[in-house]
Design brief:
Blueprint lengths: L1 H24 L2 H8 L4 H10 L2 H33 L6 H30 L1 H7 L1 H10 L1 H18 L12 H13 L9 H12 L4 H4 L1 E2 L5 E3 L4 H11 L3 E6 L1 E10 L18 E4 L4 H11 L3 E5 L5 E6 H9 L14 E5 L2 E5 L4 H8 L12 H9 L8 E4 L2 E8 L4 E8 L2
Parallel strand pairs: 2-3, 5-6
Antiparallel strand pairs: 1-7, 3-4, 6-7, 8-9, 9-12, 10-11, 11-12
């Protein structure tokens, strides 16, 4: 009889401590979505979560009641076991042995392992065990209400603090939920645009200008003192809607011209020139967007630490970061090569982001604020532009330059050697 009560108390203690940590760890957005399903389980979850403080208090009360009953019967069991074995020890040793054995059993069976398990599978277990949790919640409801009232009274009178707190969804919880949804999508399935936009929006606040800018080597420009016919020819050749206007070099950009302005039949480029904003590489794109909207500008020139032109960024670039690639009939499809050609061997375009390669191919390439792309990683190490046919070793990463110009690396073969 005593052993049955002990086992029951341990199971209940594990349940109460597990549900407490599951309720705290469960994704609040996931619970809200489950509560909208309009079935029996959703109504139970609604009642459980309508007052989080009382639910947690009820679980704590249940856990303590179970442990008190367990301690009473476990003490008798250990004492009988010691008497049966003929162990005669002083009274204080008797109490110490009972405490150590009982505490060890509780920690292993009802505290440590259940909390780890319930924390890992919080979303699932809080649904599966919602009904028994609700029954105990109702059983201890008035006792938990009484203790919460005492706690609120003490907090308000002596600490001038409000006891009740409103539980809001955090940005991290939203991010975790969207990541879970993305992980359930098969590779050949198309991700819902709403989920993709939410994920982009969560990452948006941490993206810097240099992460999405058009790099200096890809900027198409026309000199300020060239003719309008030269500018018109460049528009026709590139199909761009905007052309950057510089004076002598790209380090002295003075503005840009929109193709629409050519309908005004300007006599000089300067007469239709629009000004640009200048921003540092490290500025966040959300700040660039605010600046461009406030100044009613469309283009910003991104400057490096020495004041030279590092690249350009437009409002379209920022919008694409949120909503995905926006292509028009003049956009050319630039295919970035990423191919695994053998065990530990890859063929990569150097425009690929290091963060992306680490995430997809688990390469563990060091990431730094000094570069963002694979080409930047190589140049940051060599301090110069490698040429076609060069072999470069950076720790365990062995690069063979397959395609390159005097301005940039384009294609590399990467071999990982431990």
């Amino acid at each position: 009889m005593g052993i049955s009560i002990i086992i029951t108390c341990l199971i209940l203690a594990a349940f109460f401590s597990g549900m407490e940590i599951a309720f705290i760890s469960a994704n609040k957005i996931y619970l809200e979505i489950e509560k909208k399903q309009d079935d029996f389980l959703s109504r139970i979850l609604t009642k459980l979560t309508e007052n989080p403080s009382k639910f947690i208090a009820a679980m704590l009360i249940g856990n303590n009641v179970a442990l008190v009953i367990y301690g009473f019967f476990m003490g008798d069991l250990i004492l009988n076991w010691m008497t049966h074995l003929g162990l005669l020890v002083p009274d204080w040793w008797d109490v110490l042995i009972q405490t150590l054995v009982a505490a060890l059993v509780v920690l292993l069976t009802s505290e440590f392992f259940p909390k780890v398990f319930f924390q890992i599978y919080a979303n699932s277990l809080i649904k599966i065990l919602a009904l028994p949790a609700y029954l105990f919640y109702r059983l201890f409801y008035y006792i938990s209400s009484f203790f919460i009232w005492i706690a609120d009274f003490v907090l308000s009178k002596f600490f001038k603090s409000e006891g009740n707190q409103i539980h809001l969804f955090s940005r991290i919880e939203l991010g975790n939920y969207i990541t879970e949804q993305m992980s359930t999508v098969e590779e050949d399935e198309e991700v819902d645009s709403e989920i993709q936009i939410f994920q982009n929006a969560l990452e948006f606040s941490g993206v810097k200008a240099r992460d999405i800018m058009t790099p200096r080597t890809e900027i198409v420009d026309v000199d300020l003192f060239d003719t309008v016919d030269d500018l018109k020819a460049m528009f026709i050749e590139t199909g761009y809607s905007k052309i950057i206007i510089s004076q002598n070099s790209l380090d002295d950009i003075v503005g840009y011209v929109h193709s629409f302005d050519l309908f005004k039949k300007p006599s000089t480029i300067k007469s239709v020139l629009m000004t640009v904003e200048f921003v540092p590489e490290t500025i966040l794109i959300k700040d660039v967007l605010n600046l461009l909207i406030k100044k009613r500008k469309n283009v910003a020139v991104v400057l490096d630490e020495y004041g030279g032109t590092s690249g350009i960024i437009t409002i379209e670039d920022i919008v694409e970061e949120l909503f995905g690639e926006i292509e028009d009939e003049h956009d050319l499809d630039e295919e970035l090569i990423e191919e695994e050609i053998g065990e530990g061997k890859y063929l990569f375009s150097t425009r690929l982001d290091v963060e992306y390669l680490n995430e997809v191919y688990k390469l563990m390439i060091p990431e730094s604020d000094s570069y963002g792309t694979l080409g930047g990683f190589i140049v940051n190490h060599t301090k110069e532009i490698p040429q076609k046919g060069d072999r470069i070793v950076i720790d365990k990463y062995h690069f063979f330059i397959k395609e390159a110009s005097n301005k940039k690396i384009e294609l590399v073969k990467l071999t990982i050697k431990d």
